[in-house]
């Protein structure tokens, strides 16, 4: 009985090893379809949304947290022509190009651009808040007018 069990274990392990080897050989022989997998709309370029969705799916499948900021930065580094899309060549690049050292003038320009973008965002939020406030005020006045009209109509009786 022990011999029979031993033979089955050895056979099971051998089969498992053979399947593992076959899988590894098949995956090594198959070309990577990463670009095609990312390019959901098949337009021969990968958008930032497609890149992010693919990365998020990979991380979630592996049970790991997805760092959206890091993924976005990775996309931006790879997008060397800064057109908002990755070409097959940009995606296949082994290492994204390293940022060169900026001159003081470039640093100041970058800081000013960031300040301007922040100010524009704050102005936009403020404008939206003012718009909402005006809308609430207008609705309150309309409601007040309707109430007054209703009271006036009631006084006519």
Give a structural overview.
By secondary structure, this protein is mainly alpha-helical. It folds into three domains: 1-30; 33-99, Orthogonal Bundle (Recoverin, domain 1); 105-157. It is built from six helices and two strands. It has helices spanning 2-29, 34-38, 48-61, 68-78, 88-92, 104-155; strands spanning 46-47, 85-86. It has a two-stranded antiparallel sheet. Helix 3 (48-61) packs across helix 4. It is flat and about 100 Å long. The N and C termini lie far apart (105 Å).
The name of the CATH topology of the largest domain is: Recoverin, domain 1
**Structure class:** mainly alpha
Proportion of residues in extended strands: under 5%
Oligomer: single chain
SSE order, one letter for each helix or strand = HHEHHEHH
- Kindly provide the name of the CATH class of the largest domain: Mainly Alpha
User: In total, how many domains does the architecture comprise?
Assistant: 3
The number of E-state strands comes to 2
Whole-number average pLDDT?
A: 79
Tell me the distance between the termini. Answer: 105 Å
Shape: flat
Task: Give the proportion of residues in helices.
Answer: over 70%
Named CATH architecture of the largest domain? Orthogonal Bundle
The CATH homologous superfamily name of the largest domain equals: EF-hand
The number of helical elements comes to: 6
Give the radius of gyration. Answer: 31 Å
Weakly predicted, low-confidence segments: 24-31
């Amino acid at each position: 009985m022990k011999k029979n069990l031993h033979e089955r274990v050895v056979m099971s392990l051998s089969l498992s090893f053979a399947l593992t080897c076959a899988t590894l050989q098949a995956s090594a022989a198959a070309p990577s379809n990463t670009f095609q997998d990312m390019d959901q709309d098949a337009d021969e370029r990968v958008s930032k949304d497609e890149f992010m969705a693919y990365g998020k799916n990979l991380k979630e499948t592996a049970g790991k947290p997805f760092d959206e900021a890091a993924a976005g930065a990775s996309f931006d580094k790879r997008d060397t022509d800064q057109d908002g899309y990755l070409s097959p060549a940009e995606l296949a690049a082994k290492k994204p190009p390293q940022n060169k050292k900026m001159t003081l003038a470039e640093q100041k320009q970058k800081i000013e651009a960031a300040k301007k973008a922040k100010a524009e965002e704050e102005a936009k939020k403020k404008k939206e808040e003012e718009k909402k406030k005006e809308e609430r005020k207008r609705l309150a006045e309309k409601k007040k007018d309707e109430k007054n009209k209703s009271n006036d109509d009631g006084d006519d009786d």
